[in-house]
């Protein structure tokens, strides 16, 4: 039996998608319907469905973020689910999913478009074709690409208690997301800036600063080595720091041998 999970924050749209799937694919068992990305992540890890229908725009954790975190936490060797993103943005979807590893459907869901998706999913599942983790990760990277900034940061103004430190950008070893703040880690300590990693990223030179996890950006010049464990997880050794920095599967390609 083929199983599916739906993540959609609008109940009427979730019910419509489920009803349409039941009509077009009676053999498909919808094992869970989730209202946000965090629930989708948790239930997908618990139930391990064959197909995921993920709304791109959800409050809290988006469908893209849920897919990234699921890839990071997915237990091998079970094949990763087929992913179908649900979006209300036609132009965005057509560009983002052209020749993609994942499929997409537009809101409101039409029988014709969903029928084509169902046919593709059946063929992939029948032929035991994997999701193609590398291709899916490449697509997620493209979807998450930040807009270019007009001006790059040269100095970080960060708080340490009641003091504001002026940190040259080259002294930063890595940035770490902490709720509404970002922790700026240097060789001689840590300091906080009141922003998000998403807001910070476009202001950094992407030739020098690499995002390696949804919550971490590293200064590539201070990465000493990348270590892959028996489960295939990658962690970085950073100059002047004892801890290792975890790398998401989304960015593991940055540390493959040349």
What does the model show?
With 258 residues, this protein is α/β, with parallel strands linked by helices. The protein has two domains: 3-143, Rossmann fold, CATH 3.40.50.2300; 155-255, LytTr DNA-binding domain (OB fold (Dihydrolipoamide Acetyltransferase, E2P)), CATH 2.40.50. The protein has seven helices and 15 strands. The protein has helices spanning 11-24, 37-47, 63-73, 90-96, 111-126, 133-143, 197-200; strands at residues 3-7, 29-34, 51-55, 82-87, 103-106, 155-160, 163-168, 172-178, 181-186, 189-193, 209-213, 216-219, 223-228, 234-238, 244-247. The strands form four sheets. A five-stranded parallel sheet has the order 2-1-3-4-5, sandwiched between helices. A five-stranded antiparallel sheet has the order 10-9-8-12-11, with no helix packed on it. A three-stranded antiparallel sheet has the order 13-14-15, with no helix packed on it. β3, α3 and β4 (82-87) form a beta-alpha-beta unit. The N and C termini lie far apart (42 Å).
């Amino acid at each position: 039996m083929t199983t599916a999970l739906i993540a959609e924050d609008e109940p009427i749209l979730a019910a419509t998608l489920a009803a349409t799937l039941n009509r077009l694919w009676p053999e498909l068992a919808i094992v869970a319907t989730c209202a946000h990305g965090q629930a989708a992540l948790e239930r997908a890890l618990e139930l391990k469905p064959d197909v995921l229908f993920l709304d791109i725009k959800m409050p809290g954790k988006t469908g893209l973020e849920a897919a990234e975190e699921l890839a990071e936490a997915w237990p091998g060797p079970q094949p990763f689910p087929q992913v179908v993103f649900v979006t209300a943005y036609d132009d965005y979807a057509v560009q983002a999913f052209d020749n993609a590893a994942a499929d997409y459907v537009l809101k409101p869901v039409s029988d014709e478009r969903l029928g084509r998706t169902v046919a593709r999913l059946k063929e992939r599942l029948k032929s035991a074709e994997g999701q193609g983790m590398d291709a899916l990760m490449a697509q997620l990277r493209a979807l998450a690409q930040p807009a270019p900034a007009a001006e790059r940061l040269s100095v970080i103004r960060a708080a340490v208690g009641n003091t504001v430190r002026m940190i040259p950008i080259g002294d930063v070893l890595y940035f770490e997301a902490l709720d509404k703040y970002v922790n700026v880690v240097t060789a001689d300590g840590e300091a906080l800036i009141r922003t998000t990693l998403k807001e910070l990223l476009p202001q950094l030179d992407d030739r020098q600063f690499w995002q390696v996890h949804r919550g971490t950006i590293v200064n590539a010049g201070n990465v000493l080595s990348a270590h892959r464990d028996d489960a295939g997880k990658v962690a970085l050794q950073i100059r002047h720091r004892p801890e290792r920095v975890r790398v998401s599967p989304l960015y593991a390609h940055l540390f493959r041998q040349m």
